Amino acid sequence: MLSKKMEKALNEQVGMEAAASQKYLAMAIWCDAEGLEGSAQFFFDHAEEERMHMMKIINYIQESGGLSVVPALAKPTQKYADIKAVINAAYNSEKKVTKAIHNLVDLSLTEKDHATYNFLQWYVAEQQEEEVLMRKIIDKIELIGKGPQALYYIDQAIFKTGQEAEAN
Predict the structure, then answer these.
(1) Confidence bin at 148 (pLDDT 50/70/90)
(2) 3-state SS class at 68
(3) 60, 62, 86, 95: which one has the fewest Cβ atoms less than 10 Å from its Cβ?
(4) Ramachandran bin of 131, using left for φ above 0, alpha for ψ from -120 to 50, beta for the remaining angles
C-alpha cells in the first residue's frame, strides 16, 4: 500500500512523463516540418516511449492501492532555432526527469517502501540510457559540423542512433 506522500510524488512523475511525451511530440512535428524525417521519427518514437513510462507508473499506482491522477499539461514549445536546439532541449528535459526519479528513489527509501524502490530501479536504468543517448547525438552533431550537407547527415545520425538504442 502506497503512503499518501508516495502516491502524490508518483502522480507528479506521471505529469512529468506526460509532459515529456507532449514535448517530444512537438519536437517531432517541428522536425517533420523542417524536412528532417529521421529526426521526426526519432521524436515520434520517443513521445510514445514517454507515454509508456507514464502508463507504467499509472498502473503501478493503481495496483498498489493508490489513485492515479490525469495531469493537466502546459502547451510545449513548438519553435526551435535549429536541430541542435531541439536536441539540447531534449537532453535538458531528460536531466530533469532523471533528477525527479532520483528524488522518488530517495523518498521510497525514507518511506521504507521497498516495493516502490524496486519498481523505480527500472526508471533509474532507463534514465541513464536516455541521457547517454542524448549526449551521443550532441557529440555527433558537433562532429558533423555545419557544412552545406550537415543537416542531412545529422538527420541520418539521429535516426540511426535512435534505432541502435532501441535494439539494445
Answers:
(1) confident
(2) coil
(3) 62
(4) alpha
**How far is residue 133's CA from residue 18's CA, in Å, rounded to a whole number?**
20
* Per-residue pLDDT, 161: 85
Rounded distance between C-alpha atoms, residue 120 and residue 125, angstroms: 9
Supply the DSSP string of 118-154, one letter for each residue: HHHHHHHHHHHHHHHHHHHHHHHHHHH-SSTTHHHHH
Tell me: the pLDDT tens digits for 80-130?
999 999 999 999 999 999 999 999 999 999 999 999 999 999 999 999 999
Q: How far apart are CA 117 and CA 112, in angstroms?
A: 8
- The length of the chain in residues reads 168
Q: Is the pLDDT of residue 1 over 90?
A: no
CATH 1.20.1260.10 fits 4-167, yes or no: yes
Cell matching residue 142? 558537433
* Widest pairwise Cα distance in the chain: 58
Report the distance separating Cα 2 and Cα 58, nearest Å.
13
